[in-house]
Amino acid sequence: MSSDADAPFDAAFDLARAGDTDRLAALLAAGLPADHANESGDSLLMLAAYHGRADTVRALIAAGADLDRCNDRQQSPLAGAVFKNSDEVIAVLLAAGADPDAGTPSARQTAAMLDRDTFTA
Predict the structure, then answer these.
(1) Cis amide prior to 8 (ω within 30 degrees)
(2) For residues 48 and 54, what is the distance between their CA atoms, to the nearest angstrom?
(3) DSSP 16
(4) Where are ANK repeat segments found (predicted)?
(5) What is the largest CA-CA distance in the chain?
(6) For the structural domain made of 4-113, what CATH number should be given?
(7) Closest by alpha carbon to 53, among 12, 79, 81, 76?
């Protein structure tokens, strides 16, 4: 259970999902950890990536978010973006150095399960 003091930081999850990059950046500037996570272990980066919010993903990366931080189900932000078929987010994460083999299933395994050629040349 969150305290009232955590409420502004808890609102960050909705901002990440919605791609409200400016408001999320303000919270980061006010001390919100870039790797803030919810009770399921979903980081802000995971939520932004899963919902296809490329600009928010960029802002979180710039703030130092862990590219390969997995949630409690061992899913990585890159695997979430692959699952949702978000090409722009996939490109942003890979360009920043995200590991396609992080997590279980990894982004590479997720692409193979969904018969996508995300990681083939």
Answers:
(1) no
(2) 7
(3) H
(4) 40-72
(5) 49
(6) 1.25.40.20
(7) 81
C-beta separation of 110 from 76 below 8 A: no
Q: So where are the chain's domains?
A: 4-113
pLDDT, tens digit, for every residue of 30-75? Answer: 999 999 999 999 999 999 999 999 999 999 999 999 999 999 999 9
In 37-59, which positions are buried (b, 16+ CB within 10 angstroms) versus exposed (e)? bbeeebbbbbbbbbbbbbbbbbb
Distance CA 45, CA 83 (A): 15
Whether pTM > 0.90 for this model: the answer is yes
Residue 81 C-beta-side C-alpha neighbours within 13 Å: 29
Do the beta carbons of residue 11 and residue 1 sit within 8 Å? no
Would you say the C-alpha torsion 39, 32, 97, 18 has a positive or negative sign?
A: positive
